[in-house]
Amino acid sequence: MYNSSAASGTANTTSGSRIFRYEVVGLRQNSQTDRTSYPIRQSGSTFINVPYSRMNDVMQQITRLGGKIVSIQPLTADSKINGNVTPEQKETALEVETGEGNQPGAKKKPMTQAKAKTDIPVNIYRPNAPFVGRVVSNEPLVHEGGIGICQHVKFDISEGDLRYLEGQSIGIIPPGTDKNGKPEKLRLYSIASTRHGDDVDDKSVSLCVRQLEYQHPETKETVYGVCSTYLTHLKPGDEIKITGPTGKEMLLPEDPDAKVIMLATGTGIAPFRAYLWRMFKDNERAANPDYQFKGLAWLVFGVATTPNVLYKEELEEIQAKYPDHFRVTYAISREQKNPEGGRMYIQHRVAEHAEEIFKLLQEEKTHVYICGLKGMEDGIDAALSVEATKAGREWKEYQRELKKAGRWHVETY
User: Which of 63-67, 363-367, 384-388 is least confident?
Assistant: First the structure.
């Protein structure tokens, strides 16, 4: 699954300058996607260092890009950005377009990844020095009669130092140049394998990628995503530029007794596939003697048709072997009807089970993860709001408490 980058902007840190660091969520990817209705998934926060003189301008740019400022912190003039990033790295790091970038010839602000906690691997490989891996396999996930192209792509990372955790993302830098003649920027994709890889040998990382396809709003021509098309058509042996890993929002709780509710649409299942393998696969359990899952994992999965149920065989295998610990509930929009007679979407399934979900949320060991289409969020909130009202609570307030406790995790696009 694809998501835009979490990044930190460089700023003039000359002695005496007043610099402030903005933490921003929800930034869109670039001017091309801004001109279309196709949404781009986010992962974690973006950190932008801003001179005092430009604070208002940058705030307006963030708003135009759909972002939300969640915190502003003052920095000293000699504060380090990203720990030990060199000036050269700042100039060659990932660029994210500002509001002015929507105009031809506009300049862009270079952005660099934010430093994370030391116990979480982050940015081992950066855009200016990516890891070059090779494709091991590229297997279709959509069965006959399904809609679109979606692939499970596995990369060999045995020759590098890339490490990652379930719930993180890696960046992919596609070849070629963009419409402005500059090298293509990286795109982030959720990792679909556990930290040990599909073969549990610490030598691979896998992605679940759907080829982006949409109709241009003005020309009505079919447009295909640059990076998703590149990835879905790779062949074994092809080289690939990888950055990362990034992300802390979707990390799986370490408690083996946790109750994990996963709400996914389409390729939003990618991080949840990694969770489920870590929880239930025999070879994974053997490789992780200190983590033997004994809790509840409940996946509510929304897709268009039955052939579009990604990893269906794996899910059914786990369900058959661990019926007391794993549940899967499907919302198949073009085949099932909701109570009003319309298409069945994931929010309708949540409403159907809202009483049970809200009851589970009262337990401190329960975590909710939402990954996929942003459109499902309002319906999920509406369903749980009803249950909260019954319990004498206001849902938004209670949801904020869950987020503060680190039990409500969302990455939607």
Answer: 63-67
CB burial of residue 33 (10 Å; 0-12, 13-18, 19+):
middle
Do residues 197 and 284 share a domain? no
CA distances from residue 184 to 126, 270, 306, 316 in whole angstroms, order as listed: 14, 24, 35, 39
Q: Are residues 70 and 184 in the same domain?
A: no
pTM for the structure as a whole: 0.72
Q: How far apart are CA 304 and CA 113, in angstroms?
A: 35
Q: Would you please indicate which residues are annotated as catalytic (active-site) residues? A: 189-190, 371, 411, 413
Token pair of 207 as six digits: 């992605």
Instruction: Check whether residue 407 and residue 358 sit in a common domain.
Output: yes
Give the largest Cα separation in the chain, rounded.
65
Tens of pLDDT, residue by residue over 325-375, are: 999 999 999 999 999 999 999 999 999 999 999 999 999 999 999 999 888
Half-sphere exposure of 65 (CA within 13 A, CB side): 29
Domains contained in the chain, number? 3
Output the domain CATH number for residue 401. 3.40.50.80
Nearest to 13 by CA among 59, 50, 54: 50
- Tell which of 246, 268, 289 closes a domain: 246
- Is 242 part of any domain? yes
DSSP H or E segment with residue 245: strand 239-246
> Which CATH number fits the domain that encloses residue 163?
2.40.30.10
Which of 246, 270, 293 terminates a domain? The answer is 246
Instruction: List all residues 6 or more positions away from 152 whose beta carbon is below 8 Å from its beta carbon.
Output: 137, 138, 139, 140, 141, 192, 206, 207, 208, 311
String of DSSP letters for 196-242:
TTTTTSS-EEEEEEEPPEEE-TTT--EEE-HHHHHHHT--TT-EEEE
String of DSSP letters for 257-287 = T-EEEEEEEGGGGHHHHHHHHHHH-HHHHHH
For residue range 245-259, what is the model confidence (pLDDT) as tens digits? 999 999 999 999 999
Q: Which amino acid is at 222?
A: T
Enumerate the β-bridge partners of residue 129.
Answer: 126
